[in-house]
Amino acid sequence: MKFKGNVNLKELRGRTALVTGASRGIGQVVATALAREGMNIALAARSGEQLELLATELRKLNVRIIAIPTDVGDEAQLKRLVETTLRELGSIDLLVNNAGIEAFRAFHLIEPADIANTIHVNLTSTLLLTRYVLPHMLAAGRGHIVNMASISGKYGPAFGAVYAASKAGMIAFTQSLRGELHKSGVSASAICPGFAHDGGIYEVIKERTGRGMPWYVGSTSAKTIARAVIKSVRYDRPDLVVNFPALRPVFTLCQAFPRLGEWIVRQTTFRFMKRAATRE
Ligand SMILES: NC(=O)c1ccc[n+]([C@@H]2O[C@H](COP(=O)([O-])OP(=O)(O)OC[C@H]3O[C@@H](n4cnc5c(N)ncnc54)[C@H](OP(=O)(O)O)[C@@H]3O)[C@@H](O)[C@H]2O)c1
After folding, report:
1. What is the CATH number of the domain that holds 104?
2. Fewest Cβ atoms nearer than 10 Å: which of 38, 64, 155, 209?
3. How confident is the model at residue 215 (pLDDT cuts 50, 70, 90)?
């Protein structure tokens, strides 16, 4: 068995990326890392002002950057995002489906509308945007789709049911795509970060709970996640679990011994997740 990686995207310089959720947090750091690799980038999120600030900063790296204010929950805006990117930048070689929202809450208390919205923003928009981008990648014979999932998609934690369901969906979607696209020149990867200790969703939860995850669950940084995005494209990795300490052995154990796995996850995460879910 030979692992050649995505031969069409080993060199990122001069290629074009579309990054959603680029206005802050992980998306902003990923976009910056891609611009440093010499990629031209379309930045998408709802906050146009934040996108413009980032675009101005990244243009200093001598790459073409456009900011396209977009609500990924609106299909018409997704269509327009793809059309504008193709018109302005000529191609989409890399799509990073990063926009996402958290939904940590006791499941019986969560508003039904919030369930639908979380699935829509995290999962449905990923599928729809990919659906609009993929025909162009296939016609060009090259491309890569990176889906920003989470360790919550690898094993659903207590009080994270809706978020975990959306992220597990992103991982399964990536696996199906890879099977379908094999040898087409286009591929897909899922990134499964642990909690990023330097910004984003986790920071908000930490503020809410007044403390972080226990050390043995670990964490990661937005920069490490950005490096994982680049690695996943260059080496065509199916999925990368980004966390220190390494969690893949734990997930493997959970698969092989589900009852032991659920005990381990409960012991290590239950108290933190319960605090994260308490908003009153
Ligand atoms: N931080 C972590 O610890 C962690 C761990 C694992 C996975 N992740 C995943 O990583 C991704 C980024 O998370 P983050 O921590 O960087 O979160 P964040 O700081 O809250 O940023 C979320 C980004 O998504 C955008 N977004 C949210 N709703 C949107 C919508 N309807 N339309 C367009 N853009 C939207 C936000 O921009 P606007 O508000 O301007 O629209 C923002 O740019 C998410 O998918 C998250 O699930 C994060």
Report:
1. 3.40.50.720
2. 38
3. confident
Alpha carbon of 25 to ligand 1 centroid (Å): 7
Position 43, amino acid? L
Per-residue b or e along 183-220, where b marks 16 or more CB atoms closer than 10 Å to that residue's CB: eebbbbbbbbbbbbbbebbbeebbeebeeebeeebbbb
Q: How far is the CA of 121 from the centre of ligand 1 (A)?
A: 10
For the chain, the 3-state helix, strand and coil shares in percent, each to the nearest 5, are 55, 15, 30
In-domain check, residue 269 = no
Instruction: Judge if the beta carbon of residue 200 lies within 6 A of ligand 1.
Output: yes
pTM for this structure?
A: 0.97
Q: Count of domains in the chain?
A: 1
CA atoms within 13 A on the CB side of 89: 26
CB atoms under 10 Å from CB of 47, counted, come to: 14
Atom of ligand 1 nearest to the CA of 122: 45
Domain that holds residue 158: 7-200+218-247
Task: Please tell me if the CB atom of residue 23 comes closer than 6 angstroms to any atom of ligand 1.
Answer: yes
39-75 confidence digits (pLDDT tens): 999 999 999 999 999 999 999 999 999 999 999 999 9
3-class secondary structure, 187: strand
